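can u do me a favor
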């Protein structure tokens, strides 16, 4: 059965096995591999599930096992906000792995938290200390694999974490049971290169190399660092929004700046930045939150969001996954277009906001928003008819926006990327299940459109 015909929500943990003789000119801060080993980069990616507005879990261990030999491939425990990584990737760690054949992948998890949209509908966060506490199946997950690590040979291992099968939500009373289920495959170099990329990854600049136009980057909530190289094609954005304003250029990057990076992995394992956006300056005390809009109140001039991204300066870091109300009366609305063809007036005031949109809120005081930015999110659902030109009708699974279907998905030649079994708009067929990463907008007519940066088949 083709991948895109199987309607399964999946999480992809991409273990990029960088089988090269050294670190490849700045793939990260891992030292050169000892004799008989090769560098390994661990990535994470996920896909959607209907009732989950947010899902967070700690990955406390990941190890490859061969006989009595166990090799850790996770430097330190990491906290994963899985609903925010669909059709995007996040690097977790860099390790040197001994060559050989491994027969088991051992994963350990802890502390799941889930934000659920109930049938009433009500947004509820299930966590330790709440009325609804997620349960987690005991013991490590031992998955039988056949992973071969060879010197000077690059490949990737994709772990498909079936989120829909792994998280069971029941109501009356509300309960969330987590029992991880995964599938593991090893793929070719070409497939690995398509997976090993960073998209909208937020982290801190820890060092700058002006001579090589590069910087060391530590993703939020992680200990691993990665070297990001820039070039003449790299776009720099929002540095002019710092106080005082800076030029949108490499020279404006400072140690301790919080930046958002889009980058592709090179053949030698390094990362080349396509875009570097200033999220918070090193001396900035602004609070920024990112999340999914759950409701809009035009009378009170407020929106409710479920927080999916935390920022280092925010006092709301512990509120990840919670629903909060934001005052947007004086907010400046804007769109992060990311090369998509979209007019600014489609998100320039509260009348353009709808449930299901993903936004970044820069707060001026308390929960008052200074600037509200529409950003890309990923929506999984069903193609409801044949494509017309570069567009196709789409019914999302997300319960927040099911009531406003049908949605028309717009793709753009040379801009929209097709993956996971899809190579072009011609591969999209009625009844296929797909994931679309893009900008969700409401037209003045009330019609809903989704401008796609990426379209992928779903297993």
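np, heres the sequence
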């Amino acid at each position: 059965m083709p991948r895109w015909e199987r309607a399964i929500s999946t999480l992809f943990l991409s273990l990029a096995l960088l089988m090269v003789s050294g670190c490849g000119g700045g793939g990260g801060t891992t030292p050169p591999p000892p004799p008989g080993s090769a560098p390994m980069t661990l990535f994470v990616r996920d896909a959607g599930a209907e009732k989950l507005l947010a899902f967070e879990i700690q990955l406390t261990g990941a190890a490859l096992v061969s006989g009595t030999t166990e090799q850790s491939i996770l430097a330190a425990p990491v906290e994963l906000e899985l609903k925010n990584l669909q059709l995007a990737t996040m690097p977790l760690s860099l390790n040197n792995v001994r060559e050989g054949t491994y027969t088991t992948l051992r994963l350990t998890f802890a502390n799941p938290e889930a934000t659920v949209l109930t049938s009433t509908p009500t947004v509820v966060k299930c966590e330790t200390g709440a009325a609804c506490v997620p349960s987690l199946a005991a013991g490590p997950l031992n998955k039988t694999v056949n992973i071969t690590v060879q010197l000077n040979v690059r490949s990737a291992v994709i772990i498909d974490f079936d989120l829909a099968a792994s998280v069971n939500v029941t109501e009356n009373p509300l309960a969330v049971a987590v029992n991880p289920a995964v599938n593991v495959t090893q793929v070719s170099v070409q497939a690995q290169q398509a997976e090993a990329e960073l998209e909208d990854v937020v982290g801190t600049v820890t060092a700058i190399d002006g001579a090589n136009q590069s910087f060391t980057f530590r993703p939020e909530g992680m200990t691993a660092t990665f070297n990001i190289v820039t070039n003449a094609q790299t776009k720099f954005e929002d540095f002019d929004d710092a106080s005082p304003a800076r030029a949108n250029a490499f020279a404006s990057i400072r140690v301790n700046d919080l930046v958002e990076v889009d980058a592709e992995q090179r053949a030698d394992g390094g990362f080349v930045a396509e875009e570097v956006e200033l999220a918070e300056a090193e001396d900035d005390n602004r609070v920024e939150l990112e999340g999914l809009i759950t409701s809009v109140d035009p009378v009170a001039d407020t929106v409710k969001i479920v927080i999916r991204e935390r920022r280092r300066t925010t006092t709301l870091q512990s509120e990840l996954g919670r629903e909060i109300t934001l005052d947007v009366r004086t907010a400046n609305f804007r769109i992060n277009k990311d090369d998509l063809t979209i007019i600014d007036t489609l998100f320039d005031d509260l009348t353009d906001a709808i449930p299901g949109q993903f936004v970044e809120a820069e707060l001026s005081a308390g929960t008052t928003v200074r600037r509200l930015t529409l950003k890309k999110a990923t929506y999984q659902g069903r193609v409801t008819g044949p494509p017309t030109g570069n567009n196709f009708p789409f019914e999302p699974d997300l319960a927040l926006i099911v009531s406003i279907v049908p949605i028309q998905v717009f793709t753009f030649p040379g801009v929209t990327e097709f993956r996971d079994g899809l190579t072009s708009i011609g591969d999209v067929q009625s009844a296929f299940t797909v994931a679309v990463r893009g900008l969700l907008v409401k037209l003045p007519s009330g019609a809903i459109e989704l401008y796609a940066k990426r379209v992928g088949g779903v297993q």
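The longest strand covers residues 100-117. hope that helps!!
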